[in-house]
């Protein structure tokens, strides 16, 4: 069975923590952004939205973008890092907003 | 156990006899559903008339054509749906007066159907007939909408699609939920159930209520419940009398999205099993040999027609199915959906479940991870309602004569020859017998050209007027 939204969020949080680890030495702004993402994700973790299937597409997107950022960090590809972090921040903001589920119809 | 043969025609249509309406009648007859109807039988046609602003529900044309066929067989048809329980704070089918207004807006009325459209469970939804179902997997009784229980025969005319609670919305759900009265729906939805009901399995989080002052729309927290079970007390705390919860589902969207209630996935699984029990109750109420099923697997939206919207279909039209077995017909539709490629841009693609072989409803329709698209089917198999093993028979199209305009079957010359002459439908006396003032020749390539591909068109011809005046 494919991953649930919550499982993807857990994986994204773990990935973001790996990204943040030691990132301060390279760029403080990036490190701040990633740490903030982790904090926000931990706040919304285990909420109703992540138990529902509608959480899957947007969480998956964020998870993949986080994985890309980690890949760039591990490859020390700092030129591509700035754009990738910005993309991840945008996705993370969307995800946190969606977790509020305003306007979501359940029936 | 019923005959588990499923009669099927695909959704392609290129002629009179392959029109989807014609195919529906062809599979109806092939499945022997015509034999269910005896002269003077009152025949209920159970449809889902669609929620306000849903646009994927079945066109009334199908119910009309079926009603006409039933009349040909000597039966007296009526088309029906039932009140909802209410499912959301703003439901449009919660009482008879509301459902009739919604149905009429959606095209279901005696004028379009050629027979009555009725609300089968009465004004508020308490008109029903109680049936014992000792065979039931969870339910041991069902509250069947009275008009359906009173009918001599029943045809479940189902729009097959996804469903956020049932995962699939097929024949089983059309009767297992749709043919239950309002209190029957509370029964199937696990209202008051000691294990699976929201009152038992839901986890209420009043600590997440931030007070009226910090909740601009706080009134909806109380108003979402028709049983008045939510209350903000004098200490500005949210209270819930969960032990009285009937599982009307009206609070799900309101409470779940605010973190005030953990809606339990296990309740959904239990409802999906109970749907088959409810369907069995309906068969027992009407007579097990007096119920037939037609599944129109068209516009296969991920959500049910009880949603006030309709998303992009997750698979192309799958076809038209008929059977005497509710379990087999739904299994056949699920199998066809699995075989199909998902539609680009649909929820199936968004969930990456658009490949042939993917379980598309579990990904694109279910509310919770882990819900199964075969729970109702397997339950129906277990309790002897029907069989998930079936034989699929592909039907040949019927004769085109059978499906032509029935009010005057003569060809055009016989019907219109004299009238066309009398009223000069074509003005032969004008423009040298050409009839109308038009150019003889125009440059059609100019208007067929794709200017986005190349701005220039090389060959340009002159326009010539019919009267030689260009």
Folded structure, characterized:
The complex is a heterodimer of chains A (107) and B (470). Chain A has helices at residues 5-20, 28-44, 56-74, 78-98. With 107 residues, chain A is an all-alpha fold. Chain A has one domain. Chain A is elongated, with a radius of gyration of 14 Å. Chain B has 470 residues and is an alpha/beta fold. Chain B folds into three domains: 5-187 and 266-402, 3-Layer(aba) Sandwich (Rossmann fold), CATH 3.40.50; 203-263; 420-470, no CATH class. In chain B, 30% of the residues lie in helices and 16% in strands. Chain B has 17 helices and 18 strands. Chain B has helices spanning 20-30, 60-72, 96-105, 110-113, 146-149, 171-176, 182-188, 198-201, 219-223, 252-257, 265-286, 326-339, 347-350, 360-364, 375-382, 412-422, 444-448, and strands at residues 5-9, 42-46, 76-81, 117-119, 128-132, 141-145, 153-159, 161-163, 167-169, 203-204, 230-232, 238-240, 261-262, 291-297, 319-323, 391-394, 439-441, 464-465. An eight-stranded mixed β-sheet of chain B has the order 4-3-2-7-14-15-1-16, with helices on both faces. In chain B, strands 5-6 form a two-stranded antiparallel ribbon. Chain B has a two-stranded antiparallel ribbon with strand order 8-9. In chain B, a hairpin with an 8-residue loop joins strand 5 (128-132) and strand 6. In chain B, helix 11 packs across helix 15 (375-382). The radius of gyration of chain B is 27 Å and the shape is globular. Classes of the chains: A mainly alpha (107), B alpha/beta (470).
């Amino acid at each position: 069975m494919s991953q649930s939204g919550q499982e993807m969020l857990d994986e994204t949080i773990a990935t973001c923590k790996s990204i943040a680890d030691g990132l301060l030495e390279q760029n403080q702004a990036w490190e701040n952004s990633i740490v903030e993402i982790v904090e926000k994700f931990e706040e919304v973790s285990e909420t109703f939205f992540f138990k529902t299937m509608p959480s899957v597409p947007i969480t998956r997107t964020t998870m993949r973008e986080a994985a890309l950022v980690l890949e760039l960090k591990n490859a020390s590809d700092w030129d591509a890092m700035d754009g990738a972090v910005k993309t991840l921040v945008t996705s993370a903001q969307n995800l946190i907003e969606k977790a509020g589920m305003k306007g979501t119809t359940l029936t | 156990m019923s005959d588990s043969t499923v009669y099927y025609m695909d959704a392609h249509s290129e002629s009179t006899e392959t029109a989807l309406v014609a195919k529906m009648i062809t599979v109806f007859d092939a499945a022997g559903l015509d034999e269910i109807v005896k002269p003077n039988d009152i025949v209920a046609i159970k449809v889902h008339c669609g929620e306000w602003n849903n646009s994927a529900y079945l066109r009334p044309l199908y119910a009309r054509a079926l009603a006409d066929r039933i009349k040909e067989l000597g039966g007296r048809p009526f088309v029906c749906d039932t009140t909802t329980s209410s499912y959301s704070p703003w439901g449009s089918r919660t009482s008879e007066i509301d459902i009739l207004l919604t149905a009429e807006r959606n095209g279901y009325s005696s004028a379009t159907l050629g027979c009555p459209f009725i609300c089968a469970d009465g004004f508020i939804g308490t008109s029903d007939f109680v049936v014992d179902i000792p065979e039931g997997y969870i339910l041991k009784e069902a509250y069947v909408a009275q008009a359906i229980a009173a009918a001599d025969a029943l045809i479940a005319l189902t729009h097959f699609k996804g469903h956020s609670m049932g995962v699939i919305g097929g024949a089983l759900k059309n009767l297992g939920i749709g043919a239950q009265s309002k209190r029957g729906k509370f029964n199937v939805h696990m209202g008051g159930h000691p294990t699976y009901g929201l009152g038992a399995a839901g986890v209420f989080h009043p600590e997440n209520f931030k007070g009226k002052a910090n909740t601009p729309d706080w009134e909806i927290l109380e108003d979402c419940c028709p049983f008045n079970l939510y209350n903000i007390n004098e200490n500005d705390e949210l209270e819930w009398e969960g032990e009285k919860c009937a599982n009307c589902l009206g609070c799900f969207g309101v409470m779940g999205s605010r973190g005030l209630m953990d809606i339990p996935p296990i309740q959904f699984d239990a409802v999906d099993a109970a749907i088959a029990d409810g369907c069995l109750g309906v068969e027992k109420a009407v007579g097990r040999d007096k119920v037939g099923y037609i599944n129109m697997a068209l516009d296969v939206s991920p959500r049910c027609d009880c949603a006030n919207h309709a998303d992009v279909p997750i698979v192309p039209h799958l076809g038209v199915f008929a059977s005497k077995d509710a379990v087999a017909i739904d299994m056949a539709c699920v199998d066809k959906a699995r075989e199909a490629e998902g539609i680009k841009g649909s929820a199936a693609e968004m969930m990456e479940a658009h490949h042939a072989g993917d379980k598309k409803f579990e990904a694109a329709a279910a509310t919770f991870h882990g819900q199964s698209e075969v729970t109702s089917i397997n339950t129906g198999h277990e309790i002897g309602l029907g069989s998930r093993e079936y034989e699929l028979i592909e039907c040949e199209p019927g004769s085109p004569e059978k499906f032509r305009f029935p009010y005057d079957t003569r060809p055009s010359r016989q019907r219109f020859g004299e009238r066309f002459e009398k009223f000069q439908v074509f003005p032969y006396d004008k423009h040298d017998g050409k009839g109308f003032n038009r150019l003889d020749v125009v440059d059609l390539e100019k208007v067929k050209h794709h200017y986005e591909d190349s701005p220039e068109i090389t060959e340009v011809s002159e326009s010539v007027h019919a009267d030689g005046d260009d």
